[in-house]
Design a protein that fits this description.
Layout (H helix, E strand, L loop, with lengths): L2 E7 L4 E7 L4 E9 L6 E7 L2 E7 L4 H14 L9 E8 L10 E2 L2 H9 L8 H14 L4 E6 L9 H4 L6 H6 L8 H14 L7 E7 L3 E7 L2 E5 L20 H9 L5 H10 L2 H6 L5 H9 L3 H25 L4 E5 H6 L1 H15 L5 H6 L4 E2 L8 E4 L4 H13 L2
Parallel strand pairs: 1-6, 6-8, 9-12, 12-14
Antiparallel strand pairs: 1-2, 2-3, 3-4, 4-5, 7-8, 9-10, 10-11, 13-14
Helix pairs in contact: 1-3, 10-11, 11-13
Bound molecules: adenosine monophosphate (AMP).
Length: 396
C-alpha cells in the first residue's frame, strides 16, 4: 500500500487529495481556506461524507498540522508514516523544468528565484513544502510544475516581439500555465482516439482562470497564457490580452499608478469587469438570460475569445482531430459548449450531439459520428497527474 498526498498550496489556501496509489483511488480530499484568518474554513471529504469546520488557522504549518491530525483522529490513516510522499503543485518553473522533479535544495532555490514571475503562488508553494517537511519528515517530495508541459513550445511561439535582450537578460517570454491540466486532458483524448501515432488536439481549459492549448502528437505547441496567467482569454476577473497602449493611456491620461492598474487587470476585469455582476460564470450567465445587456456582452466576448484561439490553433496544427472542454465552465456549462460549438460549426464542420452535451455525465464525446471534428468533455484531474509523477519519480 502506498499513499501519496497531492497538495496545492495557495497564498491563503491549501487543497489536498490523498491517494491510495495501488488502485489510484482518492481516500480523502478537501481544502483549507482563509489561512491566516480567525474564521478559516476546513473542508474534508471522506467515506462519502463532507465535514466543514470554521476555526482560527494562523499559518500553513498550522493548516498542515490540522489536516494530519484529522487524518489520524478520523482513522483515515493509522499513522503518518503511511503517507510515503507529498506531490506539490508549483505554478511557475520557468525554463528550468520541462518535467516534474524530486525536490532538493536546488529546486527550492529555483522556486524561490521564480517568485518574481509568480509572486502570489511560488512563495505559498514553498510555505506548503516546509510545512509538510516538518510534519512528515520521512515523506519524499516532488514538484509538479504548471509550466512544464509548455516547455516544448518553439521560440517562434514563446518569444515576444520586443527587443531580444529582454529575453536574453531577463527571461521575459511566454511560459504558459495550466500545463498539468492540458497534459492530462490531451492524454485522455489521445487514449479515446485510440492512441494514434499522429494527433491534433485543442484543449479548452475554461475555469475561473482559462487557457487553450494546441497539442500535436502529445506535445504542446502553443498556449494562450503568457509571461504570466494574465494573458490570453478573458477570465473571471482577468482581462486577458490587451493593447499595452491602454495601460499607458490609463496612467498618463487618467493618472492611475501601475500597481493599481495591474491589480484592476487581475482582479476587477474579465467577466466581472464587463458585466458588473460577478466573476462567477454561473451568475453572469443567469443575468444574461434575464436580459442584463452587459452580462450578455461579457459572455459574448468570452465566447469570441475562445473561438479566436481555436481558429488560431486549427491553423497552427494544420487541422484538428479533437477539441476538449475542461475545468469549471468547460465541464459544466451546457450552454457555453453549445454556443462555442455553434460559432465553430460552419468553419469546422462540427455537429453537436445535444443529448450527450446536455444530459451526459463526466468524460464523454459530445459530437455526432458525422462531425468532422470530435469534441469531448474531459473532467480534468491535475491531482492524479501530481500523484502519478510523485510515485514514478520516487519509485514507490
Ligand atoms: P474552476 O476555476 O475550474 O473551478 O471553474 C470555476 C468557474 O466554473 C466559475 O466561473 C464557475 O461559475 C464555473 N462553473 C462551475 N459550475 C458551473 C456550471 N454548472 N455552469 C456554468 N459555469 C459553471
Amino acid at each position: 500500500m502506498s499513499k501519496i498526498i497531492a497538495v496545492n498550496a495557495g497564498s491563503s489556501s491549501l487543497k489536498f487529495q490523498l491517494f491510495e496509489m495501488d488502485d489510484e483511488h482518492v481516500i480523502t480530499s478537501g481544502v483549507i481556506e482563509r489561512i491566516g484568518f480567525e474564521d478559516a474554513i476546513f473542508t474534508i471529504k471522506y467515506d462519502g461524507e463532507k465535514v466543514i469546520k470554521k476555526l482560527e488557522i494562523k499559518d500553513h504549518s498550522q493548516a498542515v498540522e490540522l489536516l494530519l491530525d484529522t487524518l489520524i483522529k478520523r482513522n483515515i490513516v493509522a499513522s503518518l508514516d503511511e503517507i510515503k510522499a507529498v506531490g506539490h503543485r508549483v505554478v511557475q518553473g520557468g525554463s528550468y523544468y520541462n518535467q516534474s522533479v524530486i525536490i532538493d535544495e536546488q529546486v527550492l532555490a529555483h522556486i524561490d528565484e521564480l517568485k518574481k514571475l509568480a509572486p502570489l503562488h511560488n512563495p505559498a508553494h514553498l510555505t506548503g513544502y516546509y510545512a509538510f517537511e516538518k510534519a512528515i519528515p520521512s515523506a519524499g517530495a516532488v514538484a509538479v510544475f504548471d509550466t512544464a508541459f509548455h516547455q516544448t513550445l518553439k521560440p517562434k511561439c514563446y518569444i515576444y516581439p520586443i527587443p531580444y535582450r529582454f529575453y536574453q537578460e531577463h527571461k521575459i517570454r511566454k511560459y504558459g500555465a495550466h500545463g498539468t491540466s492540458h497534459f492530462y486532458v490531451s492524454s485522455r483524448v489521445r487514449d479515446l482516439l485510440g492512441n494514434p501515432e499522429h494527433s491534433k488536439i485543442i484543449v479548452a481549459h475554461l475555469g475561473a482562470g482559462g487557457s487553450l492549448s494546441a497539442v500535436k502528437d502529445g506535445i504542446s505547441i502553443n498556449t494562450s497564457m503568457g509571461f504570466t496567467p494574465l494573458a490570453g482569454l478573458m477570465m473571471g476577473t482577468r482581462s486577458g490580452d490587451l493593447d499595452p497602449s491602454v495601460i499607458d493611456y490609463m496612467i498618463e491620461q487618467l493618472g492611475m499608478d501601475m500597481k493599481e492598474l495591474i491589480s484592476i487587470l487581475n482582479k476587477e476585469s474579465g467577466l466581472l469587469g464587463v458585466s458588473g455582476v460577478s466573476s462567477d460564470f454561473r451568475d453572469v450567465e443567469r443575468a444574461a438570460i434575464h436580459g442584463n445587456e452587459r452580462a450578455k456582452l461579457a459572455v459574448d466576448i468570452f465566447f469570441r475569445r475562445v473561438i479566436a484561439y481555436i481558429g488560431r490553433y486549427f491553423i497552427a496544427l494544420g487541422g484538428v482531430d479533437a477539441i476538449a472542454f475542461t475545468a469549471g465552465i468547460g465541464e459544466n456549462s451546457v450552454t457555453s459548449r453549445k454556443e462555442i460549438l455553434s460559432l465553430l460549426s460552419e468553419a469546422l464542420g462540427i455537429i453537436i450531439d445535444d443529448e450527450a452535451n446536455e444530459f451526459g455525465k463526466g468524460e464523454r464525446l459530445i459530437t455526432k459520428p458525422e462531425s468532422k471534428v470530435k469534441v469531448y468533455v474531459i473532467p480534468t484531474n491535475e491531482e492524479l497527474v501530481i500523484a502519478r509523477d510523485t510515485k514514478r519519480l520516487l519509485a514507490l
